[in-house]
Amino acid sequence: MSSRNRQQRQIRGPQSALTDFLASHNISANQIRLDADARRRAAEADGDGAAPPQDAQATTASAAEPANENEDDTVAALPARGQRAAARLGQERRQKEQDVIDKIKSGKKKTSKRKSKDDDSDDDYELAKALSNAARPPGQSDNCAVCGKRFTVTAYSRNAPDGGLLCTPCGRELAKDDAVPKKKPKRLGNVEGRRQVQSKILDGTYHTGAKSLMTLCIETLAKNIDLADDISGLPSLVVDKIARKLSKHRLLDPNTLNLFIQPTVDELAIYDGAKLSADEYIRVIQTCPELKKLKIFNGIHFKDEVMDYLLSRHIELEDFHLHGANLLSDSKWQEFFQKKGRSLQSLKVSWTDKHFTNAALVVLKDTCPSLVRLKVMHNQSVSGDGIKGIARMPSLRHVSLDLRQTVHSDIYVDLVNRLSENLETLSLTRVANVDNTLLDAIHNKCRRLKKLRITDSEIMTDEGFYRLFTGWTNKGLEFVDFQNCRQLESMQPRLNPDGVGLCSKGFVALMAHSSRSLKFLNVQGCRHITRQGFEEAFGPDKVYPELVKLEISFCEEVTDFIVGSIFRSCPKLHELNVFGCMKVKDVRVPRGKILVGVPNAMGMVIDGDDV
Amino acid sequence: MASRLSRDEDVGDLPPTNVARNASKTYQWGGQKHGKNPATTIPDSDDLSDSDLSEPPDELVSDSSVGSLQGYIGTDDDDDDDDDEYDPTLPPRRDARDADEDDDITGIDDDDNDNQNDDEDEALDLLTVRGATANRRAYRRPRHKKRSMNDRERLLSNHPELKTLWTDLASQPILKAGKAEQPKSIKRQLKGFQLEGLAWMKAMEQTEWKGGLLGDEMGLGKTIQAVSLIMSDFPAKKPTLVLVPPVALMQWMTEIESYTDGTLKTLVVHGTNAKSKNLTVKDIKKYHVIIMSYNSLESMYRKQEKGFKRKEGIFKEESVIHQTTFHRAILDEAHSIKTRTTMTAKACFALKVDYRWCLSGTPLQNRIGEFFSLVRFLNIRPFACYMCKDCPCSNIEWGMNSDNRCNHCNHGGMRHVSVFNQELLNPIQKFGNSGPGKAAFKNLRTMTDRIMLRRLKKDHTNAMELPVKEINVERQFFGEEENDFANSIMTNGQRRFDTYVATGVMLNNYANIFGLIMQMRQVANHPDLILKKNSEGGQNVLVCNICDEPAEDAIRSRCKHDFCRVCVKTYLQSSVEPECPQCHIPLAIDLEQPEMEQDEVSVKKTSIINRIKMENWTSSSKIELLVHELHKLRSNHASHKSIIFSQFTTMLQLIEWRLRRAGITTVMLDGSMTPAQRQASINHFMTNVDVECFLVSLKAGGVALNLTEASRVFIVDPWWNPAAEWQSADRCHRIGQSRPCTITRLCIEDSVESRMVLLQEKKTNMINSTINSDDAAMESLSPEDLQFLFRGS
């Protein structure tokens, strides 16, 4: 280099005519180059500490010169005016050079993309390469300046805007919008959060905005329940909420149970008795002599000995709900009714295996004169004889049955005929072989019915449902559940010549009859309700002012349009279930409504935010 | 049938004596009804000429169709096999097939993985083979009765004990041992019937058979009874060997530890356990209990018997386990050796053991022939023996030298008959439940009464304090588009099926037929199972295991799960001891690794989720049915945990993704996981309240799991074999469960599934009539069953 400085007047070798010319005007190309190097080093100082190797610099130098020569043709025309002018020119030059580099860089982008060098940009390319790629020789691995990943440095690796090298993806990103630094990969907040939100919507407990203070407190308490000593001062509603929360977290055990059993309580709900033993139940009965309402879920250890103890105490239960106590024998049940039946108003028994039998139900009529509500669910033993027993209890207003034994329609008809006067709730779950005669009986007799559930009937026909709801003098129903009342036929599933199940006609009649009062409707799986049926029921002139929850899953004919119509017709609607409605694809959900079960990848629940 | 005829013609050219032989050979085809081809493995009722052995005497299956079926299994049936112990240095597992003794469908069992319940195998046994033999029977009945009579007489003269075999057995009283005392070294209080079981087991060890079969229904605590038995004569001089399915390795280990407080020194022999490397007999003797999986044992035995290929040739390595003499061998889920020609079964037979025990909740899954394998393992003489018709030679092995002559008496191999087949199998197959068949049934029960103790849950609910179990079938129908798709496959399949029937080559093409059925079953789950089998047309992007979106900047953890770099970074920061969100072992991941290449090839190997196009994806009726059921379970006062079984891992992946998108937290268990991963996943499910669903591949987790935290079981696709379904249902309905259990079988009514459910019921009848000492009508499946699947009539 020094030799070049000395031989200023001779043009030869690597020294170009331009350099020579500039030198004659007291402008040093070397100086320009050194300046450029210094700037670059300053920029790289904080990035990658490693100094560029010497030979790289040499190539930079040799490469820089022809580039200068090339680009500065116009500048060269300027006359030289002494030192100051030269200095000013130098500055302009630097400015120019920077611009050119920028230009080159963008040019390089093209070349690197195309991987072919144009002849005219050849020099530019080399310069750019020299300027930008001095840090690492190709073939070595480095960490990317932006994303921090390891990558292999190639001749095409790019400089980061603030020093260091970029991996190929980041470089490509940078190339896209050159000046703009690579934006962070998008990710909205906490991803675990999304699943949790979905989960809450699924629970129906999702609220936008902050939770109420009470909810927060209950949640905190449930989380730290082992620290709580006493919750006796709290209102019963709150205690119930805590109990629910605990059971949901499966935290109810002999220790936490103590919080709920106080001598003064008259209402106790054990939502998950799975971890409690017979001794705990005895303790409950011991400590709560005032008990009126007792509700136990998963109470497998509520055995004969517990019942014996209960019978020996002066507890007069009014409301007894026992779930999953299948070790309690039938004779104990009968004994219970005989001794404690007088005060009993509500009895719910579920999951009892074969131990809650017809005999127990027959005993009921003589022993529980004030019984209003009776619910026997998931029972494998009760059959027609037991129902005949129920039919002779005129006090009953609410009857819910879910029996695994097949019972003939006539017995249900008899039940309806005898109890119809007071009957408000009739719930018959999984009655596959019950036919239209039951519907006709309801039509003829029932005048006070509010809740009607008949599910899984394979025989009832559309005509039967139509007859039921046409000209029925009963007031509008509030709760209707006809799920899976449909034809079960595997050979010709699409045809339904006999109109088996709830189809369009019956559906329209139902909606017309109960339009004012209906709050809850479930027609899941009634797959022969046609599009026209839905469109008629939810037409522009129809309003269902009270409807809150609607379940139309597995109704094939439901389309986006029908879902839209439903939202229009049901101002109070909170939740609409459309599982398995394959024709629902892309619906706009109004604000405050929830659409559950759209069969795509959107997430299960769409919470409306459309106005 | 055409092939059958041609065979007869072939033989017709032979000298007259051979014709006679052939006649009796046809007689013997009845033996095949039970699928595992006793005709070739065991010379039961007659004398196949030696020359016949050289060619596969079974024309049910042409080699090519086996091959194609095998390929079929490899690709379509998903990777449920527990191949965690697969040794790449070994030749592919076709050994059993290579031997010419094994040329029918049993080969499939081996290839896939012999201790798995092989779906295809069973279905085929069930349908085709039975159908075939049922038809064949018509051909052969009356001829040459005399000849077989003569044979019988000779046999009896050489083995007079056979005459009084059953009366002798019946005169032995059924062992009633009363109740044992609670063993002091067992920390848990045993229930009454468990103590009875223990006493019975101890008493059985004193009898000549030195062991037996504990056939208690699932969930009655077979494990604790077995552990108590081990403790009953602790410390024994020699160790005890426990063989289990891979999924239960860790569970046995922990149960032994918790019951005995670590008194027993236990070793888990598994490829991933460093201690089990380079074991010597001496090492083994230091332990009290050795636990290993059937697969490991099979692999060791194979190395010893067949050797393994290296560059320099075939090496053989002596199996340490087979060198060691054990005090006691316990086969958990003993139906794993139900096919006695498999290497696994042979490996078990070859063990040197003083006392032998089988534990199985479902000792009989498909055929009565399966029972033979257990009898053989238990060395129940003389029932497991082969007897020579020409001399008093009687041996447990049917060993032949190179001339196909018996190693002992040097009479022709085919002159030996299996007592079990002769006395039990053949009459039952030939006559069903009437005449001699009925007598054989009675005899079978006489035998099972004496070697097996079986208690049913329904008899002990009160003692076990078991909650109620309810089994439901949820039925739904296809949506319109799905229906079109299913119909196109169905009609296509039906046409081909009809062609096969018309040309009389149905049985030659069973692999194809089976392929059709398989497709129809997959369609019922989700069309993507067929459409997205390959990566074409999908989005082919890796999906992050944390956010369930296409992974941005995908990186992979050591346990081979993919994440967005950002997701996993935040995830790592948010917890102290991060575990993999997918398999729940401690998470090890290099955050600075280069982004993963997302090419089609690499994506194809991973989950089906990576192959679908998310934005256009539509669910299926089956999946929605499941999601809807789960949605209904949501309640503000209870959290229900569910186990979801499917036999297609792709289906599980789809379900998992759908559920996660829907806000339901899930855990998955499939055959590709290591024991540590399995255990971690199980623990995660059992201890974490928020985890609602446990997705389990039926083959990998259908047995031996104890998941009492769950109270719901969903069986996504019906299974050929009802016993496998009961097994899976009983993962949660077992001792320790305190919530009512619901088993829900999901069924698409207008698909092939509704018919499979009906077929299952037929099978159930067979099982009930033998094992459960129930005289329900013994119904055998007819060839019409296959047609029923297609035509529904």
TrEMBL record, chain A:
GO biological process terms held by the UniProt record: SCF-dependent proteasomal ubiquitin-dependent protein catabolic process
Region (Disordered): 34-125
Biased segments, Low complexity type: 48-67, 76-89
Domain of life: Eukaryota
Gene3D superfamilies assigned to the protein according to its UniProt record, in alphabetical order: Ribonuclease Inhibitor
Biased composition (Basic residues): 106-115
InterPro entries xrefs: Leu-rich_rpt (IPR001611), Leu-rich_rpt_Cys-con_subtyp (IPR006553), LRR_dom_sf (IPR032675), Znf_Tbcl_Rhp7 (IPR056451)
Domain DNA repair protein rhp7 treble clef: 138-176
Entries under Pfam families matching the protein: LRR_6, zf_Tbcl_Rhp7
GO cellular component term of the entry, any: SCF ubiquitin ligase complex
SUPFAM superfamilies found in the cross-reference section: RNI-like (SSF52047)
Compositional bias (Basic and acidic residues): 34-44, 90-105
Protein name per UniProt: RNI-like protein
TrEMBL record, chain B:
GO terms assigned for molecular function: ATP binding; ATP-dependent activity, acting on DNA; helicase activity; hydrolase activity; zinc ion binding
Segments of this protein annotated with the region Disordered: 1-153
Family matches, as PROSITE patterns: HELICASE_ATP_BIND_1, HELICASE_CTER, ZF_RING_1, ZF_RING_2
Keywords: ATP-binding, Helicase, Hydrolase, Metal-binding, Nucleotide-binding, Zinc, Zinc-finger
GO-annotated biological processes: nucleotide-excision repair
Biased composition range(s): Polar residues: 19-29
Keyword Zinc-finger in annotation: yes
Database matches in Pfam families: Helicase_C, SNF2-rel_dom, zf-C3HC4
Domain Helicase ATP-binding: 203-381
GO cellular component: nucleus
Family affiliation: Belongs to the SNF2/RAD54 helicase family.
PANTHER family: DNA REPAIR PROTEIN RAD16, TRANSCRIPTION TERMINATION FACTOR 2-RELATED
Protein name: Nucleotide exicision repair protein
Gene source species: Schizothecium vesticola
